[in-house]
Design a protein that fits this description.
This protein has 17 helices and 16 strands. It is α/β, with parallel strands linked by helices and 436 residues long. The protein is elongated. The protein starts with a strand and ends in a 13-residue tail after the last helix. It comes from Homoserinibacter gongjuensis.
Length: 436
């Protein structure tokens, strides 16, 4: 089972007078406005964050996301509900216990850097270990490694005021990483940066998380940032979590109209991947089959080529109609001599934006394979266009897609007839129906 690094259960945060009474009314079905003058910032928030994932909490200003993250490290006490960090309960803990949990379990990166202005980069990065009482040489060595990791080598002796905004945020990230806690909380960490620097920081965070396996809870109001970073996303509105899912879940199956409107302008080509749109591969033939079997599949499916698969559906190549007809006329069995490896394949994680060129060039639906080269599915061009337009590939109206060039049915039928005549076999009933 996947380890749970952080768990929130039934969290409420109400500011103002008689907060417990407001919680009871909210539990009974009252709306946020009905408990005023109390302010219900977070209402019945429940979720789990798996070890090693980036869990993004997304919402507009006033949705409660920043209040929520401050309850996850004890900066704000929950009015009701529970928070657990790696199995240790944070809510209800004493002040000393909360401090201990922060030092061992959770660190935070803030929107406005929160660096110590009179300390150098290296001393800022080492500060979390200094608070823990780690020896100076040990903490500075750990800080140097992290500074190098975030790309700030050579800047160790600079003060924060001498750095750009992006560099200061790298220092904040390095400080949190040096603390080596189980969970990293990031509250709008990149929102104060210029767009280009922001994108660089997003990419670096993904690289660092992949290398270090950190558990990250990331708060943002930017949908594209959430889609780029998140393994899973929690969408908040008016203090409540209205949907939790992967970026693909949020984009393709929004829970309500609010989420649908939120994601309507997302660049689907950069969020969706081959795995989200692939379909079962039907234009396939076994490597042990002959040209007759290959031609029958082509005819039945009205295509001009088939994929050849071996044991465990390992993709060995492609057979085209002209080659199969030539082989059949020659009376040769087996497909090995006409199986070509000049086909395009993509992995399940390939974004749709990278499928256009290979899809146009391929005579077959684009092959989707795993790291063992097994054929997992295919992406037809019509399905690719439908996914980009958020239209059903089975019922929606789509742009016209020209089919690949094919062999006329009369040519294939003549080839089959000639081969049957030579072998003395009868042409199967219906063999000349349909088109290729």
């Amino acid at each position: 089972m996947t380890e749970i690094a952080l768990r929130a259960e039934g969290l409420y945060k109400v500011f103002g007078r008689q907060p417990q009474e407001a919680v009871e009314r909210l539990r009974a079905g009252a709306s946020r406005d009905e408990v005023r003058p109390a302010t219900a910032a977070v209402i019945d928030a429940s979720f789990e964050v798996r070890s090693g994932e980036i869990f993004v909490v997304m919402g507009l200003s006033g949705s409660g996301k920043s209040t929520l993250i401050r309850m996850l490290n004890g900066l704000l006490d929950a009015t009701a509900g529970e928070v657990e960090l790696c199995g240790e309960r944070l809510t209800g803990a004493s002040a000393a216990q909360v401090r201990g949990l922060r030092r061992r379990r959770v660190s935070m990166v803030f929107q406005h850097f929160a660096l110590l202005p009179h300390r150098t980069v290296l001393d800022n990065v080492a500060y979390a270990l200094e608070v823990r009482g780690v020896a100076k040489d040990e903490r500075l060595e750990a800080a140097r490694r992290t500074v190098d990791l975030v790309g700030l080598s050579g800047w160790e002796d600079k003060l924060p005021g001498e750095l750009s905004g992006g560099m200061r945020q790298r220092v904040g990230l390095a400080r949190a990483l040096t603390a080596d806690t189980d969970v990293l909380l990031m509250d709008e960490a990149f929102s104060a940066l210029d767009p280009l620097i922001r994108r660089e920081m997003q990419e670096q965070l993904v690289e660092l998380q992949s290398a270090l396996g950190k558990t990250i809870v990331f708060i943002t109001h930017d949908l594209n940032e959430a889609m780029f970073l998140g393994d899973r996303i929690a969408v908040m509105r008016d203090g409540r979590i209205v949907q939790i899912g992967t970026p693909e879940d949020i984009l393709t199956d929004p829970a309500n109209d609010y989420v649908a409107q939120f994601v309507q302008d997302v660049d689907r080509a950069r969020v969706l991947t081959a795995s989200s749109v692939m379909e079962p591969a039907r234009a396939t033939v076994s490597a042990s089959s002959g040209p007759r079997a290959a031609l029958k599949v082509m005819r039945d499916l009205q295509t001009s080529a088939v994929y050849v698969v071996g044991r465990d559906r390992v993709l060995t190549g492609v057979v085209r109609d002209q080659d199969a007809i030539r082989l059949l006329r020659a009376g040769t069995t087996g497909l090995a001599s006409i199986t070509h490896d000049d086909f395009a394949s993509v992995s399940v994680d390939t974004p749709l934006s990278e499928l256009f060129v290979p899809a146009v060039e391929s005579p077959l639906p684009l092959a989707v394979t795993d790291d063992r080269n097994r054929l997992l599915g295919v992406v037809p061009r019509v399905t690719l266009l439908a996914a980009l337009g958020n239209v059903s590939s089975h019922t929606g109206e789509l742009p016209t897609v020209e089919p690949p060039p094919t062999v006329p049915i009369t040519v294939m039928s003549e080839a089959l007839d000639a081969a049957d005549a030579e072998s003395g076999r009868a042409v199967p009933s219906g063999a000349q129906e349909g088109a290729v």
